């Protein structure tokens, strides 16, 4: 005697119940008892399978919700959501927002928070400004000096708001990465000789001073001998 139970879910396994007694050697009372027992086991197996399937589905749903519920940092200007539990650099609105973001997502003004703010607030503006120009113009300082200064000011402002010393290793690494991306192919100026006028002045000056110093020494010596 066998009974099976299966659901629509592909992960369901069949539950088989076998009769341990050989056929023909059981009476009707035992057969009725086995039938009742088989029906009870069939119902129990189906109920247990249903509970396992429901429990697995709930666990999978909870895991999916936890994986998809990652916080998204909102760096847009708006109201400050929480009171600060640490000192902020200044009371400026933008500065208070930076500190609020660090408290809300990182718990404190850490270097990780500074890195996140630089990635969202400073570097994209510089990247957009540089990509708007043609690459041959990147090597001309007059074309990029304004964008470079704005980037430097942005990193300094956020660091001061979080009361992190500036410059710091993170800011230095940021500029190293920028130089490797945009200014790597720029030719470096070789050292050249100064103009001839400067060379002549540097050579003539000590030559003229030597006779003058000798004359002063001789004059001083004669004056000393006459007085004695």
Distance between the termini: 145 Å
- Average pLDDT works out at 73
Low-confidence stretches: 1-41, 54-71, 77-81
Percent range for β-strand residues: under 5%
- For the secondary structure, the number of strands is 0
Largest sheet: none
Cα shape: elongated
Helix-strand category: mainly alpha
CA radius of gyration is: 42 Å
- Specify the number of helices: 6
Give the SSE order as H and E letters: HHHHHH
Helix content: 55-70%
Protein model, in words:
The chain has helices at residues 28-68, 93-105, 111-131, 141-161, 169-182, 196-227. With 228 residues, it is mainly alpha-helical. The longest helix is centred in the N-terminal third of the chain and has 41 residues, at 28-68.
Task: Report a brief summary of the structure.
The protein is an all-alpha fold. It is 62% helix and 0% strand.
State the main characteristics.
mainly alpha; 228 residues; elongated; 6 helices
Topology:
Elements: H1 28-68, H2 93-105, H3 111-131, H4 141-161, H5 169-182, H6 196-227
Helix pairs in contact: 3-4
